[in-house]
Amino acid sequence: MTAADTADVDQDRDAAKPTRPFSTFEWMIAGRYLRSRRRETFISVIAGFSFAGIMLGVATLIIVMAVMNGFRSELLDKILGINGHMLVQPIDMPLTDYDAVAGRLEGVPDVVSAIPFVEGQALVSGPAGNLGALVRGLYESDLRRVPLVANNVRSGSLDGFGEGAGVAIGSRMAQQLGISAGDNITIISPRGSVTPMGVTPRVKAYPVTAIFEIGMSEYDSTFVFMPLEEAQAYFNMDDKATGIELYVVDPDNVGVMKTAIEDAAGRPAFVTDWRQRNVTFFSALEVERNVMFIILTLIVLVAALNIISGMIMLVKDKGKDIAILRTMGATRGSIMRIFLITGASIGCVGTLAGFILGLIVCLNIESIRQFVSWMTATELFDPTLYFLSRLPAEIDNGETISVLVMALALSLLATLYPAWRAARLDPVEALRYE
């Protein structure tokens, strides 16, 4: 055998060697199949719809889950910011030693503050109408330790709140009653003075020293804060308190703190936490969040089914090309990887585009809401219905990663069957009628 013959044999042996998995050759062929030609326009349209479906499905999932998380977080901050994380109420005997009990409770580790309060329901009246209200009496120093109120005073001031007989009300209440800081508000309580003719309602006017805006419509239209001693006199509570609210470092850790709180109270007390008082509300939010995730996942699933249909049509259209590649030495694995790359590319790029789109919308959700409201001349997020005055969005990294992984997995699974069919194609049958 001559040297030339040996070289030819070596070249034939090298040509017969299969290409390594995911080689440049396979990526090149997959790229050509992704680029549309005139006679492949229909297949390209299906691929485009698949891409758009994956992108919109992923973006919608990210946006909706972020809004649900933001909605829950905002409500939790507002509810716990004004009602406290734990509530200590007296049992058997009135809470007359509230200052001493509050001092002992503040000594418990992880307790930030213990605030005694007097609370009662009343009717408030102003020039523009009447409203039901929840009147809460606090020391001025304690009211300043409620940041949602102290840091959100829109008009007036809390200076001298504990020394006078003024009250602080929410902005929505002030708007509905038609009053501003410095005006008088009339508070009417059915628990008034006892006379020979029976119990007469108590009616008293108070100057409005401060107007606050928490950002939760229910609280801004309901709460009235007055000095603790004035509230005790108004509700005939003498030297008693309704209860003591506790603010702790970690609201999710209130369960393990309950025993220490009961021991520190030093008297019979009924201790409840924010989870017990709002269990129905937050359970409903959690159920709604999980159901929305399942429903919106169907969008991504439909887009994945579009990938299957588009890839099957591509395999049928490329039958002759597959047969030629097989006769030239391409293995079944190489053919399968080519179509796997083709279909997975649609899913991967669509998932990435959906992630970017969802991130952009989440970061500008309130501006988008305001723009759409302005364009349509409608209120898209009515605070009286949704409690909050702005549309919140909070992206959870774990949830976002799970959405991306789910979309990528569905896209990859959608390409397996069409790629397997392409690999199983018989070159002889494909070229029989060509």
From TrEMBL:
Locations listed in the record: Cell membrane
Source organism, top-level taxon: Bacteria
Protein's UniProt keywords contain Metal-binding: no
Domain MacB-like periplasmic core: start-end pairs: 51-263
Membrane-related topology note: Multi-pass membrane protein
Membrane-spanning parts: 42-68, 291-315, 335-359, 401-420
Residue ranges annotated for the ABC3 transporter permease C-terminal domain, each copy included: 293-427
Keyword field contains Cell membrane: yes
Cross-referenced InterPro entries: ABC3_permease_C, Lipoprotein-release_system, LolCE_TM, MacB_PCD
Pfam families per UniProt: FtsX (PF02687), MacB_PCD (PF12704)
UniProt keyword list: Cell membrane, Lipoprotein, Membrane, Transmembrane, Transmembrane helix, Transport
Protein family according to the UniProt entry: Belongs to the ABC-4 integral membrane protein family. LolC/E subfamily.
PANTHER family per record: LIPOPROTEIN-RELEASING SYSTEM TRANSMEMBRANE PROTEIN LOLE
Protein name: Lipoprotein-releasing ABC transporter permease subunit
Organism encoding this protein: Roseibium salinum
